Automatic annotation (TrEMBL):
This is TRAF-interacting protein with FHA domain-containing protein A. The gene is Tifa. It comes from the Eukaryota. One of its GO terms (biological process) is innate immune response. Belongs to the TIFA family. It is found in: Cytoplasm. It comes from Asarcornis scutulata.
Length: 186
């Protein structure tokens, strides 16, 4: 056997691709401490923390409106499965975190979908998971976007649309109780 045949099979690591956007990035440079366009390894037993405190957070956002720890990501394997996943947890007492259209309050957590948009304040982060096999570590790969990730018409994540697609705050009847009428009445 040659050394090539005897070499161990290389494991691929799961990679979390994150594209960051903030409307004031050009002026305030809040992403200046992030390492863009280079993959970084994170040990599987470490929690990846994002926030403004560089002593606690590996992913530092330079903005006084960001919490010391804004959110964290935990890499894990589902029980009785080989599926590797990420869990996102809101660590901010003041700011809600939105994962697609799911609102997370303080200490709320959710499994990260394979592709989603995470928002808090004016921050928008597109997160995409690339599968891998390694149980020892995962990778992050950060990108910077010059254009909003959300389309203008989708920015209002705070108030979900009711089933009838009418936003109640636009009508003067707001605050009134619903009136039940017979289907034969006009």
């Amino acid at each position: 056997m040659t050394s090539f045949e005897e070499a161990e099979t290389e494991e691929t690591a799961a990679c979390l691709h994150m594209t960051f956007y903030h409307p004031c990035q050009d002026d305030k440079m809040m992403f200046r401490c992030l390492n863009f366009c280079k993959r970084e390894q994170v040990r599987a037993d470490e929690m990846a923390k994002f926030g403004r405190d560089p002593n606690i957070c590996h992913y530092n956002l330079v903005d006084t409106r960001v919490s010391r720890i804004q959110f964290s990501l935990q890499f894990y394997r589902k029980p009785n499965s080989s599926e590797l996943c990420f869990e996102i947890k809101n660590m901010s007492k003041k700011t809600k975190l939105f994962v697609d259209h799911v609102e997370l309050g303080y200490l709320n957590k959710i499994d990260l979908p394979w592709k989603c948009i995470v928002c808090f304040g004016d921050y928008q982060i597109l997160m995409e998971i690339q599968e891998g096999e390694s149980l020892d570590y995962f990778e992050t790969h950060l990108y910077l976007s010059k254009v909003p990730i959300l389309q203008e018409k989708c920015i209002r994540l705070v108030q979900p649309l009711p089933e009838n697609s009418i936003i109640p705050s636009l009508f003067p009847s707001q605050g009134k109780s619903p009136i039940e009428i017979d289907e034969n009445e006009s």
